[in-house]
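Hypothesis: this fold can be encoded by more than one sequence.
Test: take the structure tokens below, design a sequence, compare later.
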């Protein structure tokens, strides 16, 4: 893996657009999800990283975002956190960057008092590598909601105890 800088903290307006562009290029985000992602990134930017949504960015040597995670505390829980999204530029997939961003996210959640992380994903064939990634990273399948997103597209919920 080439040298990657992990960035936390306040997003810039340029970074919010880079995040959405990267997510769009992966082919895993539909148009509604891209709108939501932009809203979450803008909220993080507007609230100077003090809101409900946090981002961890992976940047290459030239400062371009090549991966990110979006996560936050689950309201009403003592120590539960959601990993909303994790994405890596296609050119950098398969070299450990996703795992590095995920582990960094887990460490940050743990520092904030988190003890459980939940991840929701689709059961569609496109997401088979995603579910394998989560399982390999120590997440277990906690539930499956049949036909949640659409007929034949169930929601799989993974969890990890930190």
């Amino acid at each position: 893996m080439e040298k990657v800088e992990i960035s936390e903290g306040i997003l810039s307006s340029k970074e919010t657009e880079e995040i959405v562009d990267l997510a769009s290029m992966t082919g895993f985000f539909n148009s509604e999800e891209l709108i939501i992602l932009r809203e979450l990134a803008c909220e993080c930017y507007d609230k100077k990283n003090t809101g409900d949504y946090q981002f961890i960015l992976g940047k290459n040597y030239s400062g371009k975002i090549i991966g990110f995670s979006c996560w936050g505390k689950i309201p009403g829980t003592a120590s539960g956190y959601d990993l909303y999204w994790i994405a890596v530029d296609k050119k950098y997939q398969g070299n450990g960057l996703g795992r590095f961003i995920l582990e960094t996210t887990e460490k940050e959640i743990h520092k904030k008092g988190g003890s459980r992380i939940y991840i929701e994903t689709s059961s569609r064939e496109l997401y088979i590598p995603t579910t394998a990634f989560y399982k390999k990273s120590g997440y277990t399948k906690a539930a499956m909601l049949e036909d949640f997103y659409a007929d034949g597209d169930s929601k799989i919920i993974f969890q990890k105890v930190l």
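Strands lie at 5-7, 54-59, 65-73, 80-88, 116-122, 140-150, 153-161. The domain at 1-114 is CATH 3.40.630.30 (Aminopeptidase).
Hypothesis status: open.
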